[in-house]
Automatic annotation (TrEMBL):
Keywords of the record: Signal
Name of the protein: Extracellular solute-binding protein
Signal peptide: 1-28
Pfam families found in the cross-reference section: SBP_bac_1
Record keyword Signal present: yes
InterPro entries cross-referenced by the UniProt entry: Bact_solute-bd_prot1, SBP, TAT_signal
Organism, as annotated: Streptomyces javensis
Lineage: Bacteria, Bacillati, Actinomycetota, Actinomycetes, Kitasatosporales
Length: 460
């Protein structure tokens, strides 16, 4: 076995109380300084020009994955406002789905005319690979100039840090900041649950009981479509969090201790998801259905449940009004909720940008107090909730804020599983599809994940 590079202990994902209440003054810690000894290029040193109006005529090319209605609306509104404030700047927006972004962004970054600003997914598969290939530039000087290093808790900043060689996550230079917070939970149709005589689920066991009762009544229990791949790993991640618990999940994703993907908690999660598929809880033909089809099916009242991220509230609220609710599940009654989540993809400045200072000013426009307020007004959960952010009581956004507080205040936020290794997204998404289709046993599923994980460990 090859000698492994030592990894520093990971801190919590969220400065829980600060993010849950939106009160950050005196709570957010300053971020650690850059490390790794990388040489600093001309683009990443010197004074920062914070006024885009003085930059002359600029076209800023921006790649994002904000295709969901709420995220798209807030991005369009902020882009329009930025160009109105700085008429000399034209924003050329390229928006891709998350799946498309993963397959096309590196090619775009490596091209002769790369974008100036991109949304980079945290972890080894994307941000780490981009840093290793020197496709992103550190933004530490911008963090200092705009106050990101004090506005954002260090736990959020650390998710966007890498050593200069891309080998060590959560330490070293800062490569972006995020606008939104997010958790994965259970959306439920209030009228459907009332007709079934069921309360909103609060535990994994209670949720499975509700799925069984819905199926027995002739309803499709869960709206689910995994053609986009990410829905599968979100559903599995929620079940794994509750079945395996936070110590095991964190050890796996952050490469700490001696946890293995073949351990009992992950095997139990795989067995549970396979059981749901075998019992018909996921419906039929789900690997050929898109997440948008699943969300639409739920909004039309064709099922009582949907497991998805908080970003879907902007899609569901206009269609379902107060008939849609949201909850984060607990492992058992009396225990705090556990689920995947953290922050949205980081807004990053590319290494080849001809206008890095304007790019950074644009990012600040997205993540400053007004940017967070605009994001919230379009149904998004801001990474730093404004103090006056108070969703309408009884609305799904109110449920989401309650769930966010419940998860974060009790340290129940767990990392997305695809962060684990540079190849884990592809390995996990394919394995989930095969597991739910009946082509992989739960044991074979966990063995495949462990093989990817072991290969990464042995290569370090």
């Amino acid at each position: 076995m090859a000698e492994r590079t030592p990894r520093r202990p990971r801190r919590r994902l969220i400065a829980a109380a600060a993010l849950a209440t939106g009160v950050l003054t005196g709570v957010a810690a300053c971020s650690p300084g850059p490390s790794g000894g990388s040489a600093t290029s001309a683009k990443t040193s010197g004074p920062v020009a914070t006024d885009p109006a003085k930059a002359g005529k600029v076209t800023l090319t921006v790649w994002d994955q904000n295709t969901d209605p709420g995220a798209n609306a807030s991005t369009e509104a902020l882009n329009k406002a930025f160009m109105a404030k700085y008429p000399n700047v034209t924003i050329k927006r390229v928006s891709r789905s998350f799946a498309d972004l993963k397959t096309t962004l590196k090619l775009a970054l490596s091209s002769a005319n790369p974008p100036d600003v991109v949304q980079a997914n945290q972890g080894y598969p994307d941000m780490g690979a981009f840093v290793k290939a020197q496709l992103l530039q550190p933004v530490d000087r911008y963090a200092k100039a705009y106050g990101w290093d004090t506005a954002f808790p260090s736990q959020l900043l650390d998710l966007n840090r890498f050593s200069h060689d891309g080998k060590t996550w959560e330490t070293g230079n800062l490569y972006g900041v995020s606008q939104t917070g997010e958790i994965i939970g259970v959306y439920y149709n209030k009228a459907k649950l009332k007709s079934l005589g069921l309360p909103p689920p609060s535990t994994l066991g209670g949720f499975e009981t509700a799925l069984a009762k819905a199926k027995a009544s002739g309803l499709q229990p869960l709206s689910y479509g995994d053609a986009d791949k990410s829905p599968g790993i979100h559903v599995f991640g929620v079940v794994q969090a509750l079945a395996a618990g936070k110590p095991e999940v964190r050890k796996l994703v952050f490469d700490e201790g001696d946890a293995k993907w073949t351990d009992s908690g992950t095997l139990k999660a795989a067995t549970t998801l396979r059981r749901w598929a075998d019992k018909g809880y996921l419906g039929s033909g789900f690997n050929g259905k898109s997440k948008d089809q699943a969300v639409a099916s739920f909004a039309q009242g064709k099922s009582p449940f949907l497991v998805e991220g908080t970003w879907q509230s902007a899609v569901l609220a206009p269609k379902m009004k107060e008939n849609v609710g949201f909850t984060a599940l607990s492992p058992a009654t009396g225990q705090p909720p556990l689920t995947q989540g953290g922050e949205g993809l980081a807004w990053s400045v590319t290494s080849k940008s001809k206008h890095p200072d304007v790019a950074a000013a644009y990012i600040d426009f997205l993540v400053n107090k007004n940017g967070m307020k605009v994001a919230a007004s379009h149904g998004n959960l801001p990474a730093l909730p404004p103090a006056d952010y108070k969703p309408t009581p009884g609305s799904v956004d109110a449920d989401i804020l309650t769930g966010w507080k419940a998860v974060s205040e009790k340290d129940g936020l767990l990392p997305y599983l695809d962060y684990t290794t540079p190849t884990f997204y592809d390995t996990l998404t394919a394995a989930v599809q095969e597991l739910t289709a009946g082509h992989l046993t739960p044991k074979a599923f966990t063995s495949r994940l462990q093989s990817d994980y072991s290969s990464f460990q042995n290569s370090r």
